[in-house]
Design brief:
Belongs to the TorD/DmsD family. TorD subfamily. The chain has about 220 residues and is mainly alpha-helical. The chain contains eleven helices and no strands. The protein has helices at about 1-25, 30-35, 35-45, 50-65, 70-85, 95-100, 110-120, 135-150, 155-175, 180-190, 195-215.
Amino acid sequence: MQEFIAFNEQRAEIYWWMSSLFARELSDADLHEYHGGEMYTFLSGLGMTEELKAPVDAFRAAIKKSHDRNDEQLELAADFCGLFLSTPKSGALPYASMYVGKTGLLNDKPAQEMHELMASFDIAQRKEFNEPADHLAIELDFMGNLIIMANQQQTEEQREALMQSQLSFIDTMLLNWLPLFAKECQRHDHFGFYAAAANLLLAFCMLDKKFLAGE
């Protein structure tokens, strides 16, 4: 049981880390951590899994390359804005509605479904993050909360039900659009930091789906 709890905490930590990465521009303090020993250790641990080795190596290379930019924080912030706060033609907007919605507009059916799903699990969106519910950062934060919720259950049946909910969520609310999002990041992110992050996220979600499906 303790191993189950510890492993779930590690999974939630990864989802929450990725959520923060796609939620806002990195600050100088964030970048100091990215170039420090703890991040190196964290990524090294992820890279020990065969399915994650290549995307982890690519992301580590992007971090190293970023460190050599003249004004790293400002340039990465510009990359973030150009990708995630622009238009579908010039960027990779981080909303499920832009990839699997019917209208090509924000707040399409995926946002409504996400809002309903959060309400059904009584998981609230952070008030300070005023975005449609299908924003990638919100979906990843929700997944982290769903994982920890499984740890808090009293019976094996309750825990298993929440693990199945996680599997369904990855399959129907993340992996239904993340491959398209990662491709758009690759196409529009000329420097490559966020493209590498998106590829790592996609690889991790695919691996996590295998774990939850018992493959």
